[in-house]
Model the fold of this input.
Amino acid sequence: MILWAIPAAPLAAAAIGLAVKNVVGAKVSTLLAALAAFALSLAAASDVTRHVGGVLLPGWIGVNALAAVMLVLQSFVGLTAAAYSWGYIPHIAAESPARQRQYFANLNLFQASLFVVPLLLQPVLTWVAIELTTVLSIFLVSFSNSREALEAAWKYAVITIMGATVAAFGIFLLLWGLTRSHVATQTWSALIRTAPHMPAGAVELAFVLILVGFGAKVGLVPMHTWLPDAHSQAPTPVCALLSGVEVSTVLYVILRLWPVFMAVRGFSPESWALVVGLVSVGTAAFLLLQVHDYKRLFAFSTVEHMGILLLCLGLGPLGALACVYQLMTHGLTKSLAFYGSGSVLVATGTRTIADVRGLLRSAPVAAAALLVGALAIAGAPPFAVFLSELTIFRAAAAAQDYVVLALLLVFLGIAFLGILRRTGGMLFGQPSHPPARLPRAMTATMAVGIIPVLVLGVYLPLPLYHLLGMAARSLR
Amino acid sequence: MAAVASLNTVVGTLFILMTFLLMVSRQIQSVLRAFVGQSLLLVLSTLLLALLHHSAQLAIVALITVAAKVIVIPGVLTRTLGQELRARREIESVVNVPVSLLLMLGATVLAFFLAAPLLGPHAAEAQVNLALGLAALLIGVYTLVIRREAVAQVLSLMAIDNGVFFAGVAITTSSAIVEAAAGLEGVMVVLVVAILTRTIAQNLGSTQVSSLQQLGEEVPR
Done:
């Protein structure tokens, strides 16, 4: 079975990178492991759509369709992040090969911890894996050791670890429901089967604790305060992983538990999803307008998108499909947007929006990447997010939630204008910086990263449609 | 068996009192000592419940807790943050102690109100542990918010963890592998956060978290 090899690949790359004692070895092993993990994830996903495999060790390790979606997304962004790091990290840590090797080892460990989350069948173990993703990414966030990076890493650590601990209380309450029904296996499927017999009060309290706790790590308002800091101070490839994948990996746990909450009589998690989701989208849309740092701009857009994903859960069966679809397109697009902003950082050396002018002339590749990333994440056609957001609007109309639809359209419109106004100003006018060339690895990565964003903006390939459909059905 | 259950209630009371002490102590050394005390009481309650339910699994959980929370975590903190721990300065806090105590008392009452309807006709020992664990969680989160000192915040995080497990051992048990993974993970969290704290102390000259306010949406200087 291939499942165990997916996290094993980056683990091996971390070990090799530390053993060979040169930067090129670390880079090559990281890239090869990322390629291997991507191929294996595709194979695992194809197995899931054909209803073969899926479980490696019953009761412990296995994947369903939703987990397969996560694996594919994680491994694709992991691959582009590894390739982007090849050009980017030597640029920011040129003076110290040791620090570069340390970075690649840490990146691989973080990637492995991300892969472990969707592979586990027991909620408690998944919780441990979620904590590991935090623990293993703290030093990536603080990598530059600047005052700002340390502040970001500290907020990230304290708020998300606290959140995960709160969520653990909720998970224990759910397991209590199993114990009271004399069910010994503590897996996702056992929880879903037993949920209708659990005491409603315990499940409701568990829901609130899990929504608040993991919501803090997902970046839902009002627990989002750490997110723009951590997702803008980390080295760019790490930002892509954090924003594109890590937050959705935590949301995955909420999604996996969603049928449990839905099964409780007289309790409507859907209205919670709508309210908390809309508040996050709305707050992030307005905060976007006052940002002065272009990396923070995309970080706030992550808060917005996490709100959208949660909101989808309140929109019925089509909403579930829209949620999984948007989760995929957001991860692919957000990583691309961060690669674009990282290119601007390499070309100009500043994160401040107002200091950058005339990028189209001084660094055309970085400018194009920034423009495409901004348009794509704001939801303009012909990019992937446009189609997935269209599905959300259809879901809202189908569920006859016209107020939600109207508010969502307004907030998305504000965010669209906010993102484009901020980035637009950086592209035109008299160049503020001398012409700059980007490392070839970065340009190549962005060329690869744009492919799925464009393809999924035109149509949804049939196998992927099947996989997303299966994943959506697992949410109901 | 009734004696064991009432003994557990006494341990529970001491646990929440120790949590209060942990949260209002003004010296880092005494916060650390209170954390070790709180962990020991968690272990004691786990052992009593193991006795009550004749559960070998709970006994293993108690062993893991001793290893992780009483021995390794304080050891890791002392090794990585020796200087900061010995520093004889007061922990800055936004709210003063009497008000905090009052709020913590309120949180405890609230926790009992939240936990009581969940239990139904179930055993009394679960009631004490569930309510007090929830209370420790609420108090811990509150303290984390008002404290402005990195080492104290780390210990608050671990105290919240103790609260979660204080409730957890009374309502469910997982397999030994899962419990060991959770214990190991707690150690890793402390190790990494302690190293981050030391880096902050070295680079910025202090562990006062209140000085960490560079990031935001203000117009850059």
Remarks:
- DSSP finds 19 helices and two strands in chain A.
- The longest strand of chain A covers residues 55-57.
- Chain A has a mean pLDDT of 95.
